[in-house]
Amino acid sequence: MRARIVELLVFTSISALTRDMFSVVFNLYLREKLLTNQEIGNITSFMLWGSAIIGFAMSLLAETIGRKKVLIVSAFLFPLFNIGMIAIPNPAVLNLISFLRGGIGILSQTVVSAMIVYMTENRNRAKVFGLNIGLMMASGVFGNLLGGYFGEWFGLRQALYLSILLYCFSFIPLLRIKVPDYKVAIRKVLDFSMINKEQKKILMLFYCSTMTVGFGAGLFIHFGNLIYKDLFGLSSAAIGIALSIAQLGTAAGNVFSHVFARRVGPLQFRFWSEMLVIPLMVSLIVVRQPALFVLLYTLRFILMNSASPILTTIINSFVPKEKIATIAGMNALLNNSVRGIAAMLFGMIVGTSVSGYNLLFTISTAFYALNAVFSFLFLIGYRRHPIVLSLYPNRKDSQPAIPPRPPLT
Question: Which of 192, 295, 313, 405 has the smallest count of CB within 10 Å of its CB?
Answer without folding.
Answer: 405
